[in-house]
Amino acid sequence: MVKAYINGTGCISSQDTINDQWFFDPVVEPNGDYYNAIEPSYKEFIAPNLLRRMGRAIKMGVASANLAIKQAGATKVDAIITGTGLGCFEDSERFLLAMLNNEEQFLTPTSFIQSTHNTVGSQIALIMKCHDYNFTYVHRGFSFESTLQDALMLFSEGKETVLVGGIEEHTPNFIILNRKAGKFKIFDHHTAFWKPSAKGIQMSEGSTFFVLNKTKTEKSLASVDGIQTLYKPATSDVILQKLYSFLKLHSLLLTDIDVCLMGFSSDIDFDKQLRELLPVIKEETIAAHYKHLSGEYHTASAFALWTATKLIEKQQLPEVLAISNKKPNGIKHVLIINQYLGINYSFTLVSKC
Amino acid sequence: MSQHIYITGLGMISAIGNNVQESLASLSHSKTGIGKINYLTTRYKDDFLAGEIKLSNKELADLVNDHNPELNRNSYIAMLAAKEAVQHSGIDTSDGLRTGIISSTTVAGMGKTEMYYKDLFEKNDHLDVLDTHDCGDSTERIADFLGNVDYVTTISTACSSAANAIMLGCRMIKNGLLDRAIVGGVDALSKFTFNGFNTLMILDKEWCKPFDENRKGLNLGEGAAFLVIESEEALKKRNGKALAEIIGYANANDAYHQTASSPEGYGAQLAIEQALQMSGLKPGDIDYINMHGTGTPNNDLSEGAAVKAVFGAHIPKFSSTKAFTGHTLAASASIEAVISVLSIQNGMIFPNLNFKTPIAELGIVPETTVVKMPVSTVLSNSFGFGGNCSSLIFKKVD
Fold first, then answer.
1. Could A180 and B127 be called an inter-chain contact, meaning their C-beta atoms sit closer than 8 Å?
2. Residues B190 and A168 sit within 8 Å (Cβ to Cβ)
């Protein structure tokens, strides 16, 4: 079965992930009920004439793609695939408000042009002069998962190097409105993140890119062996049965998984099925989590893949990620079980290579 | 693994009809759906024309027979077109085969967001627009409406979106991940997109004139279209009937400018050439090209140059059908895929309305009246902001 070797990563998130030395210490806590991404100084990544016009999602996307490409030492890629739930929300909102406030008059096109969801992917293509395959997925909690699925297909169709990434940005108004709609909750230090007592998440943002290769090279950090999405599974038992079949495809049992990264979001309802799965996961492997560090967003699973890559690279599971008390004895296989709003579930199998 | 991908169902709603039969009637009678703006709320209502679906949101809700207040225009029309395609094909999503829904949109829930956005800050009504604003919403509505769906995803690559949804469906079937897929795109008109295109100054105040020397821009339209595509095995299993085959597709990037196409149409050339290569056809084997042909000075010049570069002196019969439907953005490639299949099925090439004078630099002339002739192979082009260029090739089933 075809694999995707991760040859480079670039991650902008609510943690200090742009710092290559950072390994889950120190960790940043949310700003109450939301996280902001820790953004780099973009001048290192983007020419000033371009930088001036770019919205934050584009800047985060281009910079993190740049980091991944640099680490991989890639000079060209055969495809650029991005995933984003809300796209360039800041530009969309800017054009929308200008239109509403000025009753459709005195508008300029820049923010409209940048509001299209494929802006990040096309800006990277423009900068890299890449005329090849270019795709943007915009499906909620499957946006990033779709990029990985596509990359694996491209490899079986003969492409060699593929750039994939997940990008999300929020805006002050977006936070105000979602808070008003009761979607957020202040981060609670006193309750275990995976045992919430109320509804609400900590909204976040970020951009994580990966250079994937069809063949293993000396740069390869880990491999993505498989990905599967599940739409509205009826019960946690359905998820478990699908998980066993997914692992079987890769000739693995759940007990072969060294660490299982689970997408708990701290919302009592959304996390219900993962909570039901937790005893089995703890029994058969080692449970860990990540959204208490990344916050929740449509493409948080890209942060999870970055985390899995780091765990494999360092062969360690930091205390701050652990749910189980057990320590892994070496890390060969990491399984990510992500969920978004309790609707979009996914399995990603990441292995040492 | 199936190497043949068959189209077995069509569904479409746009300015030229609420279903495929009505659309075919408009196309074969050269009857445009573009006219005065009646449904979209905009201060420019009397200044521009648009290709609107001739139904209010209330009428659409009645037609879908779902009055859930969370539904918006994008979801209504997506559900209608997807349902028509599924009924047309006769597939049963509960038969145990793996079915995917691959949709695409650019505007998503913006049409409703723009109505209530300012109220959201002051009142507590309509906060549900926060849940229905994104692109995934209409896709999941289709999935829930049809039931028993194994895979859902949504693509947004501007005006080439639905071509990429069709392509992804083909690839997932060929890679053995799905047995069949409902593929297409949807974009309802919104004040947001209307004003966006207006600030770019690429809207024609009169009927758009694709490939005409005096073309001034595009007319916006709205619509949804879906196709059911199946593997050979899935089709055989249920004794289904194929309407046409998809034998070529390609996706390339112009990498020239965020909104403009390169003068030589380099990305378009790549997409057309690669699609031809996959199909195993030579340029001379194509019977008809359904062009992207938006009617903007830039697109038509660039696309025309690309077609000339690939086909040389022997350009097949071609037309842009955007003067019928208006430019339906993310939906346009699936609407034009339906039109391409109708061409094959009915032995008809539908005209490029409003054309008078060839573009001086190109000298190419589209078909301006309905042409009755056997059509075995159709190339359909779609290009979008961000340099996204996609081409599809359809073939008559032997």
1. yes
2. no
Nearest to A153 among B42, B175, B251 (CB): B175
Over the stretch A103-143, which tens digit does the pLDDT of each residue have? 999 999 999 999 999 999 999 999 999 999 999 999 999 99
Domain termination site, one of A183, A213, A243 = A213
**A281 and A141 assigned to the same domain:** no
Cβ of A104 within 8 Å of Cβ of B44? The answer is yes
CA dihedral sign of residues B40, B46, B51, B52: positive
Residue B106 is encoded by which pair of tokens?
């650019």
Length of chain A: 353
Residues A145 and A264 in one domain: no
CA distance A139 to chain B (A): 4
Please check whether residues A142 and A174 belong to one and the same domain: yes
User: Based on the domain organization, do A17 and A111 belong to the same domain?
Assistant: yes
Which of A99, A117, A125 minimises the CB distance to B135? A117
CB contact under 8 A, B259 and A104: no
Chain B residues with CB under 8 Å of A139 CB are 135-136, 139, 152-154
Domain ends where: A163, A185, A213?
A213
- Characterize A270-307 residue by residue with b for buried, 16 or more Cβ atoms within 10 angstroms of its Cβ, and e for exposed: bbebbbebbebbeeebbbbbbbbbbbbbbbbbbbbbbb
Domain range for A244 is 222-351
One domain for residues A250 and A205: no
> Which residues from chain B sit within 8 angstroms of residue A136, using beta carbons?
155-157
Q: Would the CB atoms of A96 and B130 count as touching at under 8 Å?
A: no
- How many structural domains comprise chain A? 2
| Residue keyed to tokens 């050339």 | B269
Instruction: State the Cα–Cα distance between residues B230 and B242, nearest whole angstrom.
Output: 9
Q: DSSP E strands: which ranges in chain B?
A: 5-14, 35-36, 49-51, 99-104, 151-155, 180-187, 220-221, 223-231, 244-253, 288-290, 317-319, 348-349, 371-372, 377-384, 388-395
Residues in chain A closer than 8 A to B266 (CB atoms)? 131
Q: Does A266 share its domain with A310?
A: yes
Report the catalytic residues of B.
Answer: 159, 292, 327
Q: Tell me what the mean pLDDT of segment B219-244 comes to.
A: 97
CATH number (domain holding residue A70): 3.40.47.10
Of A5-19, A322-336, B119-133, the least confident = B119-133
**A196 and A297: one domain?**
no
CB contact under 8 A, B200 and A112: yes
CB contact (8 A) between residue B117 and residue A100: yes
Tell whether A246 and A199 lie within a shared domain: no
List the single residue in A118, A181, A232 with the smallest CB-CB distance to B157: A118
How does strand B180-187 pair with strand B223-231? antiparallel
Per-residue pLDDT tens digits for B173-205: 999 999 999 999 999 999 999 999 999 999 999
Structure confidence by residue, pLDDT tens digits, A39-96? 999 999 999 998 998 999 999 999 999 999 999 999 999 999 999 999 999 999 999 9
What domains lie within chain B, and their CATH numbers? 5-237 (3.40.47.10), 248-395 (3.40.47.10)
Q: Does B124 touch chain A (CB under 8 A)?
A: yes
* The pLDDT value given to residue B2: 52
Query: Rounded to whole angstroms, how far apart are CA atoms A244 and B99?
Result: 21
The mean per-residue pLDDT over the stretch B69-87 comes to 97
